[in-house]
Amino acid sequence: xxxxYLFILSLYLGNPVCAQQNGFKIPDTLRSKDYDYLFxxxxxxEDGSVKQSLYLQSFLQKAKSEKKPEQIxxxxxxxVHHSPENLKxxxxxxxxxxxxxxxxxxxxxxxxxxxxxxxxxxxxxxYALDNYLIANNFISKTNxxxxxxxxxxxxxxxxxxxxxxxxxxxxxxxxxxxFKGENPRAYLNSLHSLGLCHNRIGNYGLCTETNAKGILExxxxxxxxxxxxxxxxxxxxxxxxxxxxxxxxxxTYSLPAIHENEDFANESVGYFYIGKSYWxxxxxxxxxxxxxxxxxxFEDKGYIRPDLRxxxxxxxxxxxxxxxxxxxxxxxxxxxxxxxxxxxxxxxLSGRIHKEYDTKELVIEKKKxxxxxxxxxxxxxxxxxxxxxxxxxxLFIASRHIRNKNMYRQKFEELMKKxxxxxxxxxxxxxxxxxxxxxxxxxxxxxxVLKQLEKFEKDKKFLEKDLTAAKxxxxxxxxxxxxxxxIYHYRGKKFxxxxxxxxxxxxxxxxxxxxxxxxxxxxALAEEAGFSSTQRFANAFSSKTGMPTSYFIEELKKVxxxxxxxxSYTN
Length: 571
Hints:
Blueprint (H helix, E strand, L loop, with lengths): L1 H13 L2 H4 L7 H4 L3 H10 L5 H16 L3 H14 L2 H18 L2 H17 L3 H15 L5 H18 L2 H15 L4 H17 L3 H17 L6 H14 L3 H17 L3 H17 L3 H18 L8 H12 L3 H21 L13 H15 L6 H37 L3 H11 L12 H16 L10 H8 L3 H12 L3 H19 L8 H8 L4 H12 L3 H22 L1
Helix pairs in contact: 4-5, 5-6, 6-7, 6-8, 7-8, 8-9, 8-10, 9-10, 10-11, 11-12, 12-13, 12-14, 13-14, 14-15, 14-16, 15-16, 16-17, 17-18, 18-19, 19-20, 26-28, 27-28
C-alpha cells in the first residue's frame, strides 16, 4: 500500500521527469500504439489517475525516443491540460523550450499561445497578452491559418476584457466565419463571446439572437459543451432587459455545469447577477447570500472585474441601512482593495466606470466609521500631524518626481546625440595604463582576442541567451582569465556589464529605427535582446541609460511626432 502511494506521488511530482529517466520504459502493450491511440486514452481517463499518468508518460517518451519535436510539444501540451494548476506553466515553458530548439515559427508561436491561454485561465490577463503578442510575432511569419485565427480569438478576449468591445466584435466575427467549417468547439466559443460583447454594448436583442443561434448550432453539431454557457449568457442578458425572474431561472440552471468545469469567473458573475435580480425585485435579504458568494471568490481567487465592483457598493448600502458600521467598514475595505486592482489591471476602463462611491469619499467614510468604532480615540492634534506628514511626503514625492524627470530628460538627450562621446569614452579606456596584469599576456594573443571581440560584436552574438564568460572563452578558444582582463582593459567593463550594455545598445538602436518595436512590452524586448528575465532587462536598461524603458520610448514617440508635424508643414 505504501509503495502504491509513493508511486502516485512520484507521478504527480515527477512528470514529465519520470518520462525522461532511463528507468521508465513504455509498457509492451503500448509500445506499438500510435499517438492518436495514446491521446484518446489520455482524454478518456480521469485526471490525476495512475492509468492516465502512464499514458501521459508513454506519449512523451515515445515522442522523445523518435525525436519528433512536434509530438514532444504535444506531449507537454497533454500535461498542460491534465496537470494540477501549479504545474501548468512549467509544462508550457517546456513546450516553448522544445519549440525554440526546432527553429519552427509555427511550433514556437503555438507554444507561446498555449502559455498565454494558461495565464488567461488563471485570470492573469497582462501576462496572457504578452504571450499572445509574442505568439503572433512568430505565427505571422507562417501560412498557418488555424494558428492565426487562434491568436485572433485569444486577443479578442483580451480586448473584451479591457472593454474594447467593438474591436473584439470584429475579431470574433472573423473567427466565427473561419472556425465554422474548421472546429465546432472554437466556432461555438466564438459565438458565445460575440453574444457577450453585444450585451456589454447594450445590444440586448442581438445578444438574445446570438445565444439562441449558439444553442441551435450546438444541437446541429451534436456538441452540447457550450449549451450551459449560452443559457448563462442569456440569463445575464435577461437581467439587463429587466426580466429578473427569467434571469434568476436561467443563471441558476446553468451554474452547476459551470461549477463542474471549475470556471470560477463565470460562476462569480452568475451569482452577482442573481443577487442583482433579487435586489431589483426589492428582496435584499435574498440577494445578500449571492453577494457574499461573489466576495468569497474575490477573497479566494482574487477575481474582480468592473461590473462586479458594484457588489461592494450594494453590500455597503445594505449594512448602512441596517446600522451595522462594523460590516460597513469591512466592505469599504474590500471596495478599496477592489479599486486598487481595477486601477492597475483596468487602466483603460477605470475612468469610464460609473462609481457611486469614488475613492476619496470611501476613505472619508472609512475614517468616520473607524473613529466611531474606536470611540474617537484619535484627537485633532494627531489628525493634524498626519495631514502635515502626508503633505510633506507628497511634496517630497513630487519634488523627487520632478528631479527624476529632469534627469531622465538629460539622459535621453545624451542618448539621442551621435556617437562622438561614445568614441571618446572608448578611446579613453584604450589608453589606460597597463594594469591588472594585461602586460603579462602575449600581444599576439591580445590582438587575436580583440579581433574575435570585434566580430562577436559585429555579428551580434551577444544576443544569445544565458551567455557566460565560460561559454565565450570556449567559443574563442582562449583563456578565461585572459579574456576577462582583455575585456576589462579594452572595453572598460567587467564581463556581465559588457554583455548587458551590448544588448541594451542593440535595443536602443531598434527602438530608434523601428517604430513597431516601440509597442513591445518589456517582456518582448527582453526576449529580443536575449535576457533571461524581464526584470534583468529592466535593470540593465536603467543601469545603462539612467531611465526606465517606458520613459525612453515615450520620448522617442514625441520626437517622431514632432518630425511628422514638421514634414506635414514642409509638404
